[in-house]
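Sequence design from tokenized structure. All designs in this work follow the same two-part layout: the structure record, then the generated sequence. An example of the structure record is given first.
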């Protein structure tokens, strides 16, 4: 697989022997790098926040939560693709297909298949990111043909308030349960609407319009 950069992975698996086995498989691939391998939910979230991986390979048991909640929790702090260890089963014990979910059964696949699934997960993330960028470009192109002075949306005001309070884009994204790319898009639109060129001017505007309060000494 030709690529300009390695696929950065976090392994979040509580079974030590299995985790070490998966680690060794991935270490043999020139286009994949395991940036962290952990066995608890807390350590997993810390690693994801610190490393910003492309793919998180996670055993749902690590978080002791339903898969949907596990994925939501992981993506609060990182725009990463989640690859679940073990397939979801329905009440009859049959595999339940969920188009949005990527998973694998370590008991039924080969080492080569596992590596290809990791690559598939990364490609899915790349497609998602590319789509977000295309959508943003379309919005920007449409905005260029519209008159200036349009009102600030509710979401833009939420982003403005958090940024003016000193939050980073990533922190604001976590609070609003959005991706960092989406918050960046709102920030970009805000600055263009207001004719502002940097964060300092954004903060001053927010204070002047009483979006945030001026700190006072008690």
């Amino acid at each position: 697989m030709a690529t300009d950069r390695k696929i950065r992975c976090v392994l979040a698996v509580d079974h030590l022997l299995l985790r070490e086995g998966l680690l060794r498989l991935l270490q043999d691939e020139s286009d994949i790098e395991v940036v962290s391998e952990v066995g608890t939910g807390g350590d997993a979230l810390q690693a994801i926040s610190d490393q910003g991986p492309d793919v998180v390979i996670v055993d749902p048991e690590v978080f002791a939560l339903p898969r949907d909640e596990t994925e939501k929790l992981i993506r609060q702090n990182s725009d990463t693709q989640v690859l679940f260890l073990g397939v979801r089963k329905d009440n009859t014990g049959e595999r339940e297909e969920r188009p949005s979910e990527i998973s694998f059964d370590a008991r039924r696949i080969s080492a080569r298949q596992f590596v290809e699934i990791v690559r598939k997960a990364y490609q899915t993330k790349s497609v998602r990111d590319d789509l977000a960028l295309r959508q943003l470009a379309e919005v920007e192109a449409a905005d260029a043909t519209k008159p200036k002075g349009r009102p600030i949306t509710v979401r833009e005001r939420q982003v403005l308030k958090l940024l003016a309070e000193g939050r980073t884009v990533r922190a604001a994204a976590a609070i609003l349960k959005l991706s960092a790319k989406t918050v960046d898009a709102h920030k970009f639109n805000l600055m263009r609407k207001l004719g502002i060129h940097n964060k300092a001017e954004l903060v001053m505007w927010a204070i002047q319009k009483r979006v945030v309060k001026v700190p006072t000494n008690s």
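Confidence is low (pLDDT under 50) at residues 88-100, 127-140, 144-148. We note this feature because it recurs in several other targets discussed in the main text.
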